[in-house]
Amino acid sequence: MKNLRVWWLTLGCIGLLIALPLSLRKDSTQTPAAGARRLVIFTPHSETIRKEFAEAFSRHWRKSHAEDVYIDWRSPGGTSEIRLVLDASYKAADESKRAGIGADLFFGGGEPDFASQAKKGRLAPLQAFQSHPEWFAPGGPIPEMFTGERLWAKDRTWSSSCLSRFGICWSPARWQALGLSPPTRWADLSHPKLRGQLALADPTKSGSVARTFELIIQAEMQRSLTDPARQGLPEAQRLALGWTDGLRLLQRLAANARYFSDSSTKVPLDVADGNAAAGMCVDYYGAAFAHQVNRPGTTRLIWTAPAAGTTVSGDPIAVLRGAPEPALAQAFAEFVLSPEGQALWSSPVGAPHGPRERELFRPPVRQDAYKTLPAERAALSPYRTGDHLQYRPELTSAAFGTIRRAVRVMCIDTHEELKEAWTEIVRAGLPAEALATMADVSAFPYREGGKGDPGLDSTDPLVSARRMSELAEIFRQNYRRAAEQARQHPSPR
After folding, report:
1. Strands (E), 321-368
2. Chain Cα centroid distance, residue 203
3. What's the rounded Cα separation, in Å, for the pair 454 and 107?
């Protein structure tokens, strides 16, 4: 036990040594002018987004204040990596009685990550709520809630700056070659013909990907609640059955997956290149890649929102506690939320207040921003009536961490065994006994109140690691047994 604790301590130190240099990595999108004021911003956003917003805000600030501003972007990776850096940096700051960490803003990522930072007291109230209350008033351009998702914080420490939806990106040519109808639901990605054909991203590397896996489970739970065949059952039992259906669907998607990529941008690239038939990706990646590769008469990539399977999530911005340039940081956040800043997200290149070099393909959070867009772009507004899932946090939000780690042990750490079992089961004609063994997810029961697994969610890394290892072994044995059962089943004629 002592050696295990030493190992975890050593691993934590190595992680910190790796994370901090990454957090200090400079960005090449700007060259600082002599005497320029500096903003340090943590972000998972792409270089294109960083460049456009840095230059647009610099022009805006120079015009209104006759000062130069240099945006010092810190991009250690996705939101998961940024969370690690913020956790380590604020822990060190608290121990040394410092208010801040030498950074001004956190820009981009999933709502859960911002809510977590706010809960830890690391975000300052956004002044935009005071200077422009009309933006957030009922009926105003930035709604508080949409599709059950919170778009700005009750404590006013963060606000979404743009929107996103996860969905299905697919190759029409590959799909047609497999003899399948176009996908409209998440369940369409579980078809046996798609074995080895899916491109998926790792939910432990991205908060938005993890939220998508949560939504897939919740969609099955909501479907179970309204299933006529289950109406005679108590609600708790219907929820538990839906939870199981959701886990099994994730398992089937993983069984069809070629890989779980650390980079979510790899997914639409592989689909567009014909290396995968379909995958899961966020709407703006799908739109950007489709714009890049599709030509008149040739459609290499289509992005589809799964029916009743996804919500519209916010991509927030917040000012960090102890920011070195608090007033300038607040001004940057206000600019991003202003009509001028919002025009960057979805306007064509060269449009008034639009991007200068490359389009960003991001849906703005302001509803009034769509009024100034060309008709074909305005038609893509997520605020328009659509078959969205209405998120119910009481069903799954408390189990968010468990879902993230469950996918890790059930689908990623055991991926080779899962793929082998699925291959043997498909070859044997989908025998019921082997399918049932592979689909045994009883190790992850639905808990009262939608709570997570106490072992997986433990704050003690030793407890969490031990539980993950224990669960991975359960699934590994299940998959091996399912493969053997399939091999012993009479071959289909």
Report:
1. none
2. 7
3. 31
Give me the architecture of the 166-310+390-488 domain, per CATH.
Answer: 3-Layer(aba) Sandwich (3.40)
Indicate the CATH number for domain 16-163+314-378. 3.40.190.10
Angle at 457 between CA 99 and CA 117, to 5 degrees: 25
10 Å CB burial of residue 249 (0-12, 13-18, 19+) is buried
Q: Which of 241, 292, 245, 243 is nearest to 265 (CA)?
A: 292
What pLDDT shows up at residue 244?
Answer: 98
Distance in angstroms between the alpha carbons of the first and the last residue of the chain: 54
Q: Which two tokens stand for residue 206?
A: 């991205």
Return the amino acid letter for 244: T
Task: Give the integer Cα–Cα distance in Å for 402 and 413.
Answer: 15
Does the pTM surpass 0.90? The reply is no
Of 169, 148, 174, the residue nearest 305 (C-alpha): 169
Distance (Å, whole) CA 350 – CA 423: 51
Taking residue 16's Cβ as centre, other Cβ atoms within 10 Å add up to 17
Residue 280 and residue 167 in contact, taking contact as beta carbons nearer than 8 Å:
yes
Residues 173-193 as b or e (16 or more Cβ within 10 Å = b): ebbeeeebeebeebbbbbbee
The three-class DSSP label of residue 441 is coil
Q: Are strands 278-282 and 166-170 parallel, antiparallel or unpaired?
A: antiparallel
Task: Fill in the amino acid letter for 381.
Answer: S
Residues of the chain with CATH 3.40.190.10: 16-163+314-378, 166-310+390-488
Neighbours of 198 (CB within 10 A): 27
pLDDT tens per residue across span 397-446: 999 999 999 999 999 999 999 999 999 999 999 999 999 999 999 999 99
